[in-house]
Amino acid sequence: MAIRVNLDRVLVDRRMSLTELADRVGITLANLSILKTGKARAIRFSTLSALCRELNCQPADLLVYEPEENEEAEMKAAE
User: What is the pLDDT of residue 73?
Assistant: First the structure.
């Protein structure tokens, strides 16, 4: 997937555990772990908002777009 989640880096920067964040945000540790490992297929804006509130960050601190090779090739071919 072209979206990478940087939750682990932000947690280290904030010196916060995944368990603490899960408690603060009100989601299960399992769901937060799925997000952290990049296995999530979607995220609700309300969850993203709660993560940003508790981590004192912006969505761009958590999510990064990195085009995959086949996407880059398709974009160049369309030009």
Answer: 58
